[in-house]
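Dear support,

I submitted the protein below through the web form. The confirmation email said the job was done, but the results page showed an empty box. After a refresh the structure appeared. I'm attaching both so you can tell me whether what I see now is the final result or a partial one.
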Amino acid sequence: MDFLKKNKVLIAIVLTVLILVLIRSLGTNHFKNDAIKWAEPSLSRSNIISKDQIGLLAGEKLIINLDETTGETEALSKDAINIPAITILNKNHLKTIHKHNGPVLLFSNEPEVSIRIWMLLSQLGYKNLYILSTEADNEVLKYKFRPDTISRPEF
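What the results page shows now:
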């Protein structure tokens, strides 16, 4: 009992910090870890949209250029906004995305940047996100296949 009386301020501080840590760790503001849920749109390619398909989306579109320069998004839309990928988690930028009531299209000249930002925003709980691709199908082989003639014995 003597220990409790002498250290009641210290115990109160430790308990307060412990309660705050538990609230923070159990809160809903953290990334969700359901891997199948996040991988499914990528596997079905339902999160990728080409510039030809933009008109099929309902509502006002918000195109976000994740590059430092404004090059190609100006050709796609004059209403596109520039948010460099490195600053996407800025509170003002997140607020802009959250307030928008239509599809949000993420664009970068480097597709892996758009994919990473899509995953990040999806895990934060943002809905109606798409990766804007300038090619109709960026997985198609662009060059004619030519076998290696050196390794074939008949040549």
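Response: this is the final, complete result; the empty box was a page-load delay. The mean pLDDT is 79.
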